[in-house]
Amino acid sequence: MSKRDLNFEAYRKSIQSLENFKKPTAVVIFGASGDLAKKEIYPNLFWLYKDSLLPENTIIIGYGRTNLDIKKYLKETIIQKVNLDNDDLKIYDEFIEKNHYITGNYNEEPKFKELDSKINELMVDPNQNIQDCNRVFYLAVPPKVYPNISEMVGKNCRAKEPFLTHLVAEKPFGKDLETSNELSKSISRYFKEEEIFRIDHYLGKEMVQSLIALRFANQIFRRVWNRDSIESVFINFKENFGTKGRAGYFDEYGIIRDVIQNHLLQVLTLIAMEQPLSESADDIRDEKVKVLKSIKAIKLDDVVLGQYAKNENGTPEQQKGYIDDEGVDKDSLTATYAIIILHINNERWDGVPFIISAGKALDETISEVRIQFNQVPANIFKNYCRRNELVIRIQPNEAVYLTMLTKRPGMDFVVEETDLDLTYAEKYKGLYVPKAYERLFMNIIYGSQISFVRSDELTEAWRIFTPVLHEIEEKKIKPIYYQFGSNSIPEAENLIMTKGKYSFERFCRL
């Protein structure tokens, strides 16, 4: 039995009992020849098919402007992503046969009528009668074409009741509050809120999913999860590579829009929210919105921006700075690194700074939350005043650990720091940790919105960030340069330790 089977068997049985598992389903991928479809969508659909987690009768239709032989394309490209054993090749061939493709523009109504006809043509019951089906429309395309596609699908391709229509939208969902609201308005003309699945793939990650259980299922944390015990919260995201050819996209959005305003802010809401009334999607999202409404708009004084420059002594990749990437203007002021301090104006978190940090071309790739507790009052161990710290590592190597002080074994009395460590690879040996897109696809197909962003969440998130983003652009704030491979920026560390109240010191002398 494979690693996947070890923790999918019970889940598979629960899925196969769902009404939607028995309903035929069509998955339509707009932008089927693009990078996202090749790297994430098709490979993860294959794994779900292999594990018998897709509905019994599922078809997949790619739609794009590029003329494509989809079966040949999948056989030549996606197979490299799924890394199959010989025993799986037959299953892969079966999956390939479920795929189809239509070439067309995104505002071409006759082509969307053709798409609707194609779905009907492929969806026949055992008696060869045409039947309708649940329909999932995945927008793996730039947001500028979302309005056209949503209109064309809404007018021509919706499922007929009692079957369901789901529209999946990838980030970035706008560039500021105004453009986000315009985008939401254009889509909501044709789709209800419960039909729209705004993907933030961070919400599908194992450790992000675990945050709710960690917070609300453990009495030990419930009592200390507030300003009386916590000094600061540090959400840190690092990548040890640059833009890697994504400069055309990245230079338009920058690190704040690309990572902080969506991924890391979502993590913050799960860390900071009050206990929801239940595990339901709307109850959880209600509490996330309450947190966002309590966050003050960011001030420029609480921000440090950086941009990576070449490291002449580094690896060949590190010897190229951001402006050396193809498509980046030599005078670009786009930030590839940012530190932001946020403040939550409510009873639980008043006075506790939330530090969000994200950067490319740094010394390592890691994403984690570090919750630093207050100093011990009247500490009798004068040489050791290290704060306790709860660390939740999202990636890589998922883990939760608590740093604490104990006496070192021996005749002497020496206090040293140690960890209470839950590393998933050690605790859950042999179990497969699902990838974010696998989990999110399951939620989309079976109708759970627990890991997706609601429109009011999006509005509040942009309210927090839009003023400072506009100020940065209007004042042409110049980022601080840092060498490719740096740990951070001195100015950022100063902000973290002063306004952020975060201590980098492992031990400090009194």
From TrEMBL:
Any one GO molecular-function label of the UniProt entry: glucose-6-phosphate dehydrogenase activity
Domain of life: Eukaryota
Glucose-6-phosphate dehydrogenase C-terminal domain sequence ranges: 213-500
Source organism of the structure: Brachionus calyciflorus
Pfam families: G6PD_C (PF02781), G6PD_N (PF00479)
Protein known as: Glucose-6-phosphate 1-dehydrogenase
EC number: 1.1.1.49
A Gene Ontology cellular-component term: cytosol
EC class (word): oxidoreductase
Domain Glucose-6-phosphate dehydrogenase NAD-binding per the UniProt entry, residue ranges: 28-209
Gene Ontology BP terms: glucose metabolic process; pentose-phosphate shunt, oxidative branch
The protein's annotated pathway: Carbohydrate degradation; pentose phosphate pathway; D-ribulose 5-phosphate from D-glucose 6-phosphate (oxidative stage): step 1/3
Protein's job: Catalyzes the rate-limiting step of the oxidative pentose-phosphate pathway, which represents a route for the dissimilation of carbohydrates besides glycolysis.
Catalytic activity, reaction form: D-glucose 6-phosphate + NADP(+) = 6-phospho-D-glucono-1,5-lactone + NADPH + H(+)
Protein family per UniProt: Belongs to the glucose-6-phosphate dehydrogenase family.
Keyword terms: Carbohydrate metabolism, Glucose metabolism, NADP, Oxidoreductase
